[in-house]
Hints:
Helix 5 packs across helix 6. This protein has 193 residues and is an alpha/beta fold. The longest helix is centred in the N-terminal third of the chain and has 16 residues, at 45-60. The protein is built from six helices and seven strands. The termini are close together. Strand 5 (112-123) and strand 6 form a beta hairpin. Strands 1, 2, 3, 4, 5, 6 and 7 form a seven-stranded mixed beta sheet that branches. Bound molecules: inosinic acid. Residues 9, 40, 67-71, 84-85, 97, 115, 147-151, 175 line the site of inosinic acid (IMP). Inosinic acid binds next to strand 3.
Amino acid sequence: MKLVFATNNTHKLEEVRAMLLDTIEIVSLKEIGCYEEIPETANTMEGNALLKVQYIQKHYEYACFADDSGLEVEALNHAPGVYSARYSGIPHDSEANINKLLQEMEGKTNRKGRFRSVIALLLDGKEYLFEGIVKGTITTEKRGKNGFDYDPLFIPEGYEQTFAELGDEVKNKISHRARAVKQLTAFLSANNI
Ligand code: IMP
């Protein structure tokens, strides 16, 4: 079946395309002619993921899922969290986000953090939520060239390299999004979709 993935992040689109079953054809926002900025005004990841699918349902009437994700750092009271993409302001600036996080974490001994992804699915008028978490630690400097945004600063539990050093193949097996997508896929196949 065709499912719209409501994201403008091509990196995420490719990550999730590589993870989903062959029976699901992922359609991008561009492919349905959606070029507008979908509002992300909620103050939780759950709220934002739901806003995105509700918007697509209302304006385009497609079955749709959306994710909202972010990095939650213990020593920063779970910031940047839902504000991860605009941590250093708007427009989105990866380098500035990374530098701000490094600065905020200067001198902190508790380096624990986690990436969290929430997927909302809107199918036949019903809303469903799925969550994926990967725990890890925040480095004191940038390491690695792969991935995007905070990947050079995040070492997943059980590894010694950052997501940006580990590369997409490893990241796609253990990431927060992979875990949330796994739940989405399990739900879809349990319901013969
Ligand atoms: P979203 O696109 O509204 O879900 O914003 C998510 C933001 O959280 C991204 O722009 C990144 O700053 C951060 N983020 C989420 N997942 C990842 C990841 O896998 N690697 C690095 N940063 C991520």
